[in-house]
From TrEMBL:
Keywords: Membrane, Transmembrane, Transmembrane helix. It comes from the Bacteria. The lineage of its organism: Bacteria, Pseudomonadati, Pseudomonadota, Gammaproteobacteria, Chromatiales. The chain crosses the membrane at residues 56-79, 124-145, 176-193. It comes from Sediminicurvatus halobius. This is VTT domain-containing protein.
Length: 194
């Protein structure tokens, strides 16, 4: 079987040592919270591995960029929902978007806290928050806490594992990658059936 995730992991690990890698991480974190499908963990983890002493700084950069991107998603929900709703439908994410709206209606502020760990893409929560006029300050605070918890956890665990973790990650990257694909597919099936 051809390896898919290991070469990608190797490439990202090489990029993570580049002097401009933090800029790319910040841009990816910003974009993922409002419109881009790739989570920043794919860069944060290897960068924390390559620079364990800077892992917490990288987690901070990822969190702040993600929250700023979340504000763009919020603005899209407030001002441009009718423009992006057809795209959400076309991408097959309408059920996930509706689930995010239902969660906001039921739990409000607390949804944003857990959204960082949810199988539903975070960008759908940010757009739904804007569309439902969730108060901005609680949205920002919950985003900082929820997203920060996720990114600090990832960066800390990888930095703690350090160089001894790298061979293990590389050896199991295909299994980890395919497990993530299966989990994502299961989450999509669940949101369609729920």
């Amino acid at each position: 079987m051809t390896a898919v995730f290991t070469p990608l992991y190797d490439r990202v690990l090489r990029w993570s040592g580049h002097p401009r890698a933090p800029w790319l991480l910040g841009a990816l974190s910003f974009a993922e919270s409002s419109f881009f499908p790739v989570p920043p963990d794919v860069m944060l983890a290897p960068m924390s591995l390559a620079r364990p002493r800077r892992a917490l700084w990288l987690a901070t950069l990822t969190t702040v960029s993600s929250v700023l991107g979340g504000l763009l998603g919020y603005a899209i929900g407030v001002f441009g929902l009718e423009l992006v709703l057809p795209l959400i439908v076309e991408l097959g994410q309408i059920e996930a978007y509706e689930a995010a709206r239902e969660w906001f209606a039921a739990w409000g502020f607390w949804v944003v806290l857990v959204a960082g760990f949810s199988p539903i893409p975070y960008k759908l929560f940010t757009i739904a928050a804007g569309a439902m006029a969730v108060p901005l300050l609680p949205f920002v605070l919950a985003s900082l806490l929820g997203r920060g918890a996720r990114f600090y956890l990832v960066a800390s665990l990888v930095a703690w594992g350090g160089p001894r973790l790298e061979p293990w990650l590389r050896r199991y990257m295909e299994r980890i990658g395919w497990a993530c694909v299966v989990l994502l597919a299961a989450a999509l099936v669940y949101t369609r059936l729920a």
